Structure formats: structure tokens, C-alpha cells
């Protein structure tokens, strides 16, 4: 039997620190909801807005796959491995924290906010060597199709992580339908609407809504308006 969980945009956790406004799909920091700890190994889905010139100071991570997807603006990254980089809309960044790293994230611009998704996925291997990567997805993007931006396979298109997870994005015009087929048995799919209105398996979704679906072989998406979506397939069994 198909199982689903619906998270409407206005039911997410919310924190406003002045320099940072964040919406939490799952429990994070001071937002704790026993019913929203994770979706399978998808542990964090934060929708962050950082004010001009502000950012997250240097802080540590370990044994987590951290994915950042800028939606507007430019985010400056520095880490203890010596990486210094800027990621912008159209990029995807991945950080395998493994045995431990420290990093900082700053809004590169002082005159406008940066908006980005911060996503944490629990890894299937502990204490790996920390790793950093980023790509521009411009060459991968396909109009009115779902296109892969993350997988478990280094040789595939997009970035890769230490987990049997696949991320796809889509820019779909109104009326376009797409079928997404599950890559691995036991995985579920979490669909997050970046913009517009979409119907997934008969459930109407709007901007920043999320829908998790599992115990299925595929899902059906139909764009009700011009829309942007993020499809995250992850194992439902915790490591």
C-alpha cells in the first residue's frame, strides 16, 4: 500500500534571527517536532535566507552528507580542507563531512540576500575521508524534463554522496507531466516544490510544499502552472 506524508509550506518550523530567516521541514535547532524528525535518511531540509554580508561562522560537522542548492544570490564557502568557493543559482554543492570538517558560509554580497536550500542526508558509510565538490547544473538542465543532479555514483552526471540517493530537478511548463521511477527497492521519494503548483499522485501542491511517498515503484507529476521542483529519492531504512 502506498504511504504518503504531506508537509504544507506554512506548517514548517520557522526561525528569524534577523540576519537569517529559515524554514525547517524537519526538526532542527530550536524547532523540535517529534512527527517531523526525518524522511528516511533525509534528515534536514532547510529553506534559508541570509541577509547581505552576513552568514554562518566556522562550525563543525561529521558523518553527514550536506548538500547546498542556491536559489538566489551567491554563497561563499570556506572549509578546513582548504576549499574556498562561491556557489550561485544553478550550482549544487556537496560536502561529505565524514571524520570531521569545519566550514563557514557567508553571503558574498552586501546589497542583497542569498537564498538557498541546506539538505542533510545520513550516509551509508561512517568516518569516510571528508570531501568537497560542486557543479554547475546548467549543462544538465533539460526543459520540461526531470534531470539528475545527485546520485551514489561518481561516474554519473551531477554530484555524488555516500548514500543510495538520487536527486532530480525539473523546470516544467504548465500542463507538462513526468513520471519518476524509483531507482532502488526500499527507497521513498520526497518532492519539494520550489515554485509554482504541481499535482503529485493526485495531491495538489503549491510553492514550498513537500510530499513524501514510499512503497511505490514510481510517482506521477503534473505541472498545474509553470513550476520548479526538487525530487529527492532516499532509502527509508535508517542506517
TrEMBL record:
InterPro entries: Pirin, Pirin_N_dom, Quercetinase_C, RmlC-like_jellyroll, RmlC_Cupin_sf. Residues 149-234 form the Quercetin 2,3-dioxygenase C-terminal cupin domain. It comes from the Bacteria. Signal peptide: none annotated. Residues 11-121 form the Pirin N-terminal domain. Belongs to the pirin family. PANTHER family: QUERCETIN 2,3-DIOXYGENASE (PTHR43212). This is Pirin family protein. It comes from Sediminicola luteus.
